[in-house]
Amino acid sequence: MDGLTLVTGGAGFIGSHVVDALLMSGSDVRVLDDFSTGKEENLDGAWALAAQGGAGLQVIEGDVRDEVRMRDAADGCEAIVHLAAVPSVAQSMEDPVGCDSVTHGGTVNAVRQAVEAGAERFVLASSCAVYGDAAELPIAETTSPRPLSPYAGAKLASEGVCADAADAGQLTAVCLRFFNVYGPRQDPGSAYSGVISRFLSAAAAGEPVTIYGDGRQSRDFVYVADVVAAILAALQRALTGTSVLNVGTGRQTDLLQILDVVEERSGRKLERRLEPAREGDIRDSRADAGRSRWVLGWEAEIGLPAGLAATWEWFTAGDSGA
Ligand code: NAD
Ligand code: UD2
């Protein structure tokens, strides 16, 4: 795909890195974002890349659920990377209707406008949350989904919307089930923020960290640059129909292990405040990324020590990219 690519949620953590990478590859990019959690400053690097003249950037502020805005955003696009959502399990437990409206309803509109615009490729940001508490690890795409939260249910429903359009021959869909993504620009600013961003920002500020549960819950933490590489491969590979693919490292780490690395990296002992486990939380997670290796020619390359070091650098020195 070398034509115009739309990135919904392109001012967000993952989205802004996708925009940077597309511009660096010479693709013109359009962003649709309502800046509800995305930030203007996340696109500073993208504007600088566009100013170099290799590729163009256009940013539309708007709601992915708005038919007119989404139609304008999709107009002329060859591919759509759909990242706009409310990306929090906890938030979806508190506001299931509002979160589903954006995450699932936004996907219904985005796919519909993509088809209307004649886009060939639709890449959906799905999540390993759809698996719920998988009976065995590592988790393969053949594992039956058991969503434990409205967020996970909205992601699974979004996959169904993509598959329906692909089954009708209207576009080619790639549903990427990201595991737990971390890296520069992940906003630590809310209680719903990703745990690594919360721990690193607490360490940088010398503040206590909160652990929901016993801290032995594990995740497959995948660095944002690896996720971007998977998204670009999903845009470029010769595919048809619908592909559902895990994007994870195949390694699992628990929160107490993360904290040990954060304390060692920051040189600070962090006070730990224990809270009850959050509703909708899953216990353990680890990806089987074999299908992504086979279908996309992709595998994660950046391990936790290097990824955490780069993210700590960003937290302590400002935005130096991925
Ligand atoms: P993020 O909050 O930084 O990105 C979401 C972006 O979507 C933001 O820029 C936000 O302003 C925008 N947005 C939200 N509602 C919108 C709406 N109604 N209309 C237009 N734009 C809207 O979070 P992120 O971590 O970059 O997540 C990006 C995508 O990846 C989400 O779909 C998320 O569910 C998915 N994902 C993230 C992770 C992770 O660990 N971060 C893992 C799996 C899946
Ligand atoms: C889920 C998805 C992830 C992504 C995300 C939304 C799983 C396994 N992962 O992430 O793919 O879709 O939702 O973008 O479903 N925690 C603390 N202290 C904190 C913050 C978090 O203890 O300050 C705990 C939290 O309770 C959970 C773990 O850390 O047990 C990870 O939480 P998270 O919000 O970083 O991500 P998670 O797994 O809900």
Explain the layout of strands and helices.
Layout: E1 5-8, H1 13-24, E2 29-33, H2 44-51, E3 57-61, H3 67-74, E4 79-82, H4 89-94, H5 96-117, E5 121-127, H6 150-167, E6 172-178, E7 180-182, H7 195-205, E8 209-212, E9 218-219, E10 221-223, H8 224-236, E11 242-247, E12 253-254, H9 255-266, E13 272-275, H10 290-296, H11 304-317
Parallel strand pairs: 1-2, 1-4, 2-3, 4-5, 5-6, 6-11, 7-10, 8-13
Antiparallel strand pairs: 9-12
Helix pairs in contact: 1-2, 1-8, 3-5, 5-6, 7-9, 7-11, 9-11
The structure holds nicotinamide-adenine-dinucleotide and uridine-diphosphate-N-acetylgalactosamine (UD2).
Structure in words:
It contains eleven helices and 13 strands. The chain has 322 residues and is α/β, with parallel strands linked by helices. The protein has a domain of 222 residues: Rossmann fold. The strands form four sheets. A seven-stranded parallel β-sheet has the order 3-2-1-4-5-6-11, with helices on both faces. A two-stranded parallel sheet has the order 7-10. Strands 8-13 form a two-stranded parallel sheet. Helix 5 runs parallel beside helix 6. The protein is globular and about 55 Å long. The chain starts with a strand and ends in a 5-residue tail after the last helix. The model has no long low-confidence stretch (mean pLDDT 96). Uridine-diphosphate-N-acetylgalactosamine binds next to helix 7 and strand 8.
Mean pLDDT value = 96
Helix content percent band:
40-55%
Structural class: alpha/beta
Low-confidence stretches: none
CATH superfamily of the domain at 5-182 and 221-249 and 287-301: NAD(P)-binding Rossmann-like Domain
Biggest beta sheet summary: 7 strands, parallel
β-strand amount: 15-25%
Instruction: Enter the CATH topology name of the domain at 5-182 and 221-249 and 287-301.
Output: Rossmann fold
How far is the N terminus from the C terminus?
23 Å
Q: Output the radius of gyration.
A: 19 Å
Highest-level CATH class of the domain at 5-182 and 221-249 and 287-301: Alpha Beta
Spell out the helices and strands N to C. EHEHEHEHHEHEEHEEEHEEHEHH
Number of beta-strand segments: 13
Strand order of the largest sheet: 3-2-1-4-5-6-11
Bound molecules: nicotinamide-adenine-dinucleotide, uridine-diphosphate-N-acetylgalactosamine
Shape: globular
CATH architecture of the domain at 5-182 and 221-249 and 287-301: 3-Layer(aba) Sandwich
Total number of helices: 11
